[in-house]
């Protein structure tokens, strides 16, 4: 692989660039802001995210999407809300056989489409999806990390695995695209649920009961939308669910904690993007459309969307848990 592209120079996009740079000749890191591009080009540091870690010399920052024209693989390391615009622009630039990789653990609302389904509107279904129990900051530090990828095209999955895999970054291919993407969405809901419980200072017996119930309901939802139950036991399933539900580094866990403490968050004003808020509205609709009863989804929806006091919402949850 000579040339790989990454759209999005945030925490994950930059970390992936650093990892992939070990395996390829050039990595083109696309970002929107000219001033940050100039800063990276001159200093070798993405000062907004990793001011203490120098980027590899073969990472090239650019604001010109046409620089990605000849890339054999392009990673989309952007929020789900930015996907459509990026794909519209890419459609005019890249070759049909370019492999697209989605890293977004989100779902489009109100269409209820995963990022893979959005990609299919503009390209084909040979994209690759990446998901796992991964914090970008640990990837950037070259710490041991493992992730899953899935694609309907095995050859594409193998190519993506070859550019991602290093001594520290391990990649396992699975054959369940729907399950992998949906696990990335459902773990957001569980992370919020457990954050709410922690913010309320709910006892640990109950908190881990809630975590277990969320894990079981993830299986039910996955099967109903066409995923495989076994995927819930993969790194993208169990691993990511537990990581984001228990770690203070998790943004959705933090979102839940704030709501559990009755602190209402204005995401737009704070500039922080929480994929989880869209996730909960989308998953609530998916459950209703498929006749699925989920006490964890209802609990999170009540607190985050209906803004029911957490104690009342938790009491409703506990009455219905078994």
Would you give an account of this structure?
The protein is an alpha/beta fold. The chain contains 14 helices and eight strands. It has helices at residues 11-20, 34-43, 83-91, 115-122, 136-140, 154-164, 177-199, 204-224, 235-246, 251-260, 267-270, 275-289, 295-304, 310-320, and strands at residues 3-7, 26-30, 59-62, 73-76, 99-102, 128-131, 145-151, 169-174. Helix 2 (34-43) links the parallel strand 2 (26-30) and strand 3. The termini are far apart. The model has no long low-confidence stretch (mean pLDDT 94).
Give me a quick take on this structure.
The protein is α/β, with parallel strands linked by helices. It has helices at residues 11-20, 34-43, 83-91, 115-122, 136-140, 154-164, 177-199, 204-224, 235-246, 251-260, 267-270, 275-289, 295-304, 310-320, and strands at 3-7, 26-30, 59-62, 73-76, 99-102, 128-131, 145-151, 169-174. The protein has an eight-stranded mixed sheet, with helices on both faces.
How do the strands and helices of this protein lay out in sequence?
Layout lengths: L2 E5 L3 H10 L5 E5 L3 H10 L15 E4 L10 E4 L6 H9 L7 E4 L12 H8 L5 E4 L4 H5 L4 E7 L2 H11 L4 E6 L2 H23 L4 H21 L10 H12 L4 H10 L6 H4 L4 H15 L5 H10 L5 H11 L2
Parallel strand pairs: 1-2, 1-4, 2-3, 4-5, 5-6, 7-8
Antiparallel strand pairs: 6-7
Helix pairs in contact: 3-4, 7-8, 7-9, 7-10, 7-12, 7-13, 12-13, 13-14
């Amino acid at each position: 692989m000579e040339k790989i592209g990454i759209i999005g120079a945030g925490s994950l996009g930059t970390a992936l660039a650093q990892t992939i740079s070990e395996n390829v000749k050039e990595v083109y890191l696309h970002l929107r802001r000219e001033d940050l591009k100039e800063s990276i080009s001159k200093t070798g540091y993405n000062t907004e995210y990793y001011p203490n870690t120098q980027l590899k010399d073969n990472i090239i920052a650019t604001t010109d999407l046409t620089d990605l024209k000849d890339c054999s693989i392009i990673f989309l390391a952007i929020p789900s809300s930015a996907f459509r615009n990026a794909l519209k622009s890419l459609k005019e630039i890249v070759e049909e056989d370019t492999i697209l990789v989605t890293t977004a653990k989100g779902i489009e609302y109100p269409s209820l489409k995963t990022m893979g389904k959005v990609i299919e509107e503009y390209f084909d279904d040979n994209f690759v999806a990446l998901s796992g129990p991964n914090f970008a900051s640990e990837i950037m530090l070259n710490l041991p990390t493992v992730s899953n990828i899935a694609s309907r095209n095995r050859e594409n999955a193998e190519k993506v695995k070859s550019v991602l895999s290093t001594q520290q970054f391990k990649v396992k291919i699975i054959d369940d695209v729907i399950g992998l993407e949906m696990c990335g969405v459902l773990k957001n809901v569980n992370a919020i649920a457990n954050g709410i419980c922690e913010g309320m200072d709910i006892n640990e017996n109950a908190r881990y009961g809630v975590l277990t119930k969320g894990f079981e309901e993830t299986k039910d939802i996955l099967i109903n939308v066409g995923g495989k139950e076994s995927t819930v036991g993969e790194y993208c399933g169990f691993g990511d669910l537990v990581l984001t539900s228990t770690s203070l580094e998790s943004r959705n866990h933090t979102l839940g904690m704030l709501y559990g403490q009755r602190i209402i968050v204005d995401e737009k004003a704070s500039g922080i993007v929480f994929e989880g808020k869209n996730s909960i509205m989308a998953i609530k609709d998916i459950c209703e459309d498929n006749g699925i009863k989920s006490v964890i989804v209802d609990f999170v929806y009540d607190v985050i969307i209906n803004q029911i006091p957490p104690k009342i919402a938790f009491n409703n949850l506990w009455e219905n848990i078994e």
